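ok so i was messing around last nite and threw this chain in just to see what happens. nothing serious, just curious
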Amino acid sequence: MKLKLIILLIVVNFKAFELYSLDFHKGTIDTVISFTPGKGQNIGQSSDYFPQNIFGLPSPNANATTPASSPDEVLSLGLGGEIIVGFKDSYLYDGDGPDFTVFENAFINPINGKVFAEPGIVSVSEDGINFIEFPYDFQTLAGCAGTNPTIGSQDPFDPSVSGGNSFDLHTIGLNRIKYIKIKDITDKVLENPNHKFYDPTLSGFDLDAITARYLIYDNSDVPEVPISGNVIAFINNLQNNALYDFYIYNLFGAKLFSSHNKFDFFTNINNLKQGFYIISIVEDGKNYYFKFLK
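result:
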């Protein structure tokens, strides 16, 4: 089979920790970048409560019919309000299944069985400047946060039992992020009395917590490793009988293959699925790094 590689000329640097670390940990948001309150309700906005009321785990007492509601548990964004939060010392990576869960105080009305939902649209960013929005349906609110009750008695890191609204970075094609934005759209629901989730008492998104399942510490103090140029040209110029160490990593930093000659190296590449990879070639203790797309 003929090997086809698209070689990228990289003008940025690749962090060494991304190549060698795959130590995921679970956690919650721990920093607020900005908060723009909307109109109306302002529960939990006082400095007596905010931002501590959105850090940590969701209310353990919340359930399908009894939501968290005290100012030390939730922050009301208000109608049309917006908040950007993040992780101080970590990046959130795209792992297996949902990557993070947003907990609001949605609940099921025991009288009519209808979900009392105050929705927010969710977008994420790696640099805090360019945000990508998760797709959603305004009519059904599918894809929004704030539509599923919190089940505080269950594991908040297990989306299958925790309640809340979970999001998968794979949905929008991102490998990692550091910032999460929530924009209340309850005001839009209130403008439409025929909307499925319309209720005249809606007052805006109330944030309880955000949990993350695949965090990796941001070792920004690790020296940057320069990316070299054309890997094929580099390898073709190597002597056939010379001793080199070849390593192939995915973008999570997991080592996939290693070999000691360029013929085995090309065989290993043939066995890879399509996607981005990092190649490390070691010659007499000197490392060369290449990024490529198969």
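not much to say yet. The first strand starts at residue 6 and ends at 7.
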